[in-house]
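Annotated sample (chain length 263).
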Amino acid sequence: MESPHRINVLGVGISEINYAAALDQIRAAIAERRRGYITVTGVHGVSESQEDDELRDIHNGSFLSTPDGMPMVWMGQLAGSSVISRVYGPDLMLLVLKEGVAHGWRHFFYGGGDGVAEELRQKLEARIPGLTVVGTYTPPFRPLQPQEEEALAQQVAAARPDCFWVGLSTPKQERFMAAYVSKLDTTLMFGVGAAFDFHAGRVPQAPPRLQQVGLEWAYRLFKEPKRLWKRYLKNNPLFLGRTFLQLTGLRKYPGVPGHFREW
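Output written by the structure step:
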């Protein structure tokens, strides 16, 4: 299956997709055992990439980089896309888990705080009959040591998951997937961040109406001000200023020739 075009958002390629197109791509990759990782990308990921060329390259080297926030969708529409819509990490996770029941897909949960991955497993197995979760792993808040890497690789090899779900913060989860996609015996890795806490019932999600109008960030900031204030109060104004420069042509953000839909 041909890879979807990407929208150049400040040099980060956001896949020109919707939920149906994302599922089509995921089905094909798993059926063909094509390895890759999926980044769920919003303002935070794009903004972090402005000062980190390696992170930008990780996003641009993904199997898919989904338009996680409404600003990504609006940028796609301004670039002329008629198909792009929000592909939100927590909702994509549920769709793939439910789709996988019919196909016998196997899932592995990696990340979260103490006990979150196992709690997530229990909650989702109760919510989705027939779901196959073959393993969980709660990593330390530091890089894995060689013996821990080996233990994880052995656990994943024995579990043989089709989908490896990573619930870490951005950009930690993107770096992890890029580093481990060739080391772990799985097909697709998904970086879904706060989806672990949402689906485990640890953190409330923003109401759908706020999500639709691009104000999920405000809800999350209200709920977790100490953790998120720097992210949103710094990145959001910078993103607005940078996109103004890109849209007006005052600054170029080079993408990959022949790969991105350019302005």
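Annotation: The beta strands are 6-9, 12-15, 36-41, 64-67, 107-111, 133-137, 163-167, 188-191, 260-261.
Annotation: The longest helix spans residues 225-248.
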